[in-house]
Design brief:
By secondary structure, the chain is mainly beta. The protein has 3 domains: 8-50, no CATH class; 55-126, Roll (SH3 type barrels), CATH 2.30.30; 129-200, Nucleic acid-binding proteins (OB fold (Dihydrolipoamide Acetyltransferase, E2P)). It has 2 helices and 15 strands. It has helices at residues 53-58, 163-174; strands spanning 8-13, 22-25, 28-31, 40-47, 61-65, 74-77, 80-89, 99-106, 112-118, 122-126, 129-138, 143-147, 153-158, 177-186, 189-200. A 5-stranded antiparallel beta sheet has the order 13-12-11-14-15, with helices on one face. Strands 6-7-8-9 form a 4-stranded antiparallel beta sheet, with no helix packed on it. The longest helix is centred in the C-terminal third of the chain and has 12 residues, at 163-174. The termini are far apart. Residues 1-58 have low confidence and may be disordered.
Amino acid sequence: MPPCNLHRVARILPSHNPLLQIGWRSKRIFFCSVLPNSWTITMSDEEHHFESKADAGASKTFPQQAGTIRKNGYIVIKNRPCKVVEVSTSKTGKHGHAKCHFVGIDIFTGKKLEDIVPSSHNCDVPHVNRTDYQLIDISEDGFVSLLTETGGTKDDLRLPTDESLLSQIKDGFAEGKDLVVSVMSAMGEEQICALKDIGPK
């Protein structure tokens, strides 16, 4: 029987059977003998949480058929989250499928990327989220302190590299205004992407 991940520790009855060997290897349970159908498997009260690397990676993207992805949507090109700025579809040939030509802009670096995918094939599409935070402080080394919904602070983001946005944030903060920044997140990366001026303090 192949190894299996469990969210609880399995207890096999009867446990005194000499044919049964249970060993732990890398947080997995291995059954080293065939279990008769009459045996039952119960769960102990002790919980162990195992995280699958495949599941963790898959949660950052989802599959979508190439032919259904449109301009202003999102796509992963060369392992980078991109916004689609141009898409064109070639006609179906005698011996192949129609192909989609995507031109995307990396949502974090602004770099232009391209890819060609058969229209019937699936592409990876990133989960892109935007969250607003109130700006509390700007440190000398370029990090910002943001107020979260729970009343805590988020201190792991730097000021944006876009010169116009950077200038607006610095000038507004220097003037003592209440500023709200929008943070875009995708595929494990985050970046300030917009600013909202909600007036003087």
